Amino acid sequence: MQSHVLLIEDRSHVGAARRAASELASTFGFDAEGCGRVALAVTEAATNILKHAGHGRLVLRGLVHEDVAGLEILALDRGPGIADMAASLRDGQSTTGTAGTGLGALRRLSSTFDVYSRPGAGTALRLELWNGRVTPAPAALEIGAVCAPKLGEIVPGDDWAVVGDGAQVTVLVADGLGHGPQAAHAARTATQVLRRRPKASPGELLEACHERLASTRGAAVAAARINFSTHAGTLAAVGNIAARVQCDTTERKLISHNGTVGHNMGRVQEDPFDFPAGAWLVLHTDGLDTRWSAEQYPGLAAKHAGLIAGVLYRDHDRGRDDVTVVVVRRRERMGGQA
To answer: In the chain, fewer beta carbons within 10 Å around the N or the C end?
Structure first.
């Protein structure tokens, strides 16, 4: 599931982002009215980045809910941040002498609107827009992700996939060896294994991936399954993919074993972990620096998983590799189903 990253560094990028987003929305199945709302939202978000931060990124990802097309928009910058969030969300409020309708307009345009900002440390916005203004019911489990190619590459050598049935969910992240189309093929081969074997355990998935990836250049692969009734999960991982579980002030780093799936993989071991309400699981490839801590981001754990993924990508992208970060966040009140 590739994300589409649009750099916003000067005014010409605003128009380019608007056109790219409109074309992408059309590809995902948006009608003309829906494409127009996407174009307007991207224009507002990109203009806000230039106005307040000078430069930043938009990250777009397609969504589907009951066969209805949606689009997630992340607007990420490392500018001065927002000192008074309530005031900034009111129409007519601006710190730059302009009309100041940007955040208010974005909140009205979107089905879901979330923002995380700290003074001096930047702002991250997350919007959901749906074709026909469909608003899905809030899920007990949220999935957020950014999957972006190395600068200069067209496709990422990473891939990720998730399957679930209401009782449990399984997520798989793969990082094909190297970059470019051959790495992408290896990563996609791994995620296809999950789609074809949705009931397999994490260990069984890695064994199946090892067999299927033998004809490719190989990959690092991590698979995690979370069971809602037991409030627990298991991880099986081989290669340089980081995994950690965060809950309140506690953090647990999970084990990934040495090797390359498809070429040299030892006996697969599953690492069990607790996953109570409020916990979040992060899986990321080595395109993301591992030297981050949830303590750096007070209040971020309460935000949507997509916003968490966006902030980690913004601040810890190494800039010289494909990067994928997937966040699975369990809400405090489960309501019985995911």
So the answer is: N
